[in-house]
Amino acid sequence: MEIVSLAQRPDLFEAVYGIPYPPESPRFMEGSLAGSLVRGRRVARLWPHLVVALLEGGVPVARGIMVPFRWRSGYPDRGWDEVAVRAAEDALDGVAPDTACGLEIAVHPSWQGRGLSSLVLAAMRDAVAAAGLSSLVIPVRPPDKASDPGSAMADYAFAVRSDGLPVDRWLRTHVRAGGVIAGVASCSATVQGSLASWRRWTGLPFDRAGSVVVPGALAPVFVSTVGDFAVYVEANVWVVHPVARS
To answer: How far is Cα 41 from Cα 46, in angstroms, rounded to an integer?
Structure first.
């Protein structure tokens, strides 16, 4: 299996970004405004060396997407959203980055269960080192949390099995790959939209005010029927991956 970046193979942009999400992936995440800053062609144009792909027979089957930014201090509570904004601000202001943040790892549904996520993580670490950046941090979205949306992420993130590994399968992948759980971003990703948008994203009626449990959401969605909007605030888990320095 071949590992490339879009800096090496810009011709693969469409195919890399065309790797589909699993069918069960929540559509409502497309409502993230911060995410619109660092999607698609913008990242590929500014930081192609931080978009990596695994190729099988020359065809992309998995991708990892990162953005660079200047580390300030502490792990920001606003996690994914804050890093997306910081990366955009630093690029606009000409601030030299020193850290990479992983925003996405995607494996083609047909290639799930073959350990490709670990290979993508290794490729991401290598790309960060080659870029001369000091570390790789990732606000991880632990998918199994969706089965218990009412619990606190601070408790869930550090829950382990009898073997000492996290109870969440995606956090386990990161830990097995050498990642260290460093904390919780309590309001990492925010999605807001009209009730019509939420109905389109979820197929649910959204006809009552209060908290609504949405399939795939890690926490309940707050609904205002009077204001005709709903807001989802998702906590993520900060994971730090070691980067070999030359």
So the answer is: 8
Q: How far apart are CA 21 and CA 43, in angstroms?
A: 18
The DSSP secondary-structure symbol of 220 reads: P
173, amino acid identity: T
- Return d(Cα 139, Cα 66) in angstroms, integer: 11
CA angle centred on 3, ends 105 and 9, rounded to 5°: 95
Task: Name the average pLDDT for the chain.
Answer: 95
3-state secondary structure of 153: helix
Tell if the pTM clears 0.90, that is, is over it: yes
What CA–CA distance (Å, rounded) separates 211 from 221?
Answer: 5
CATH homologous superfamily, domain 2-184+237-241: Gcn5-related N-acetyltransferase (GNAT) (3.40.630.30)
Identify the pLDDT of residue 246.
57
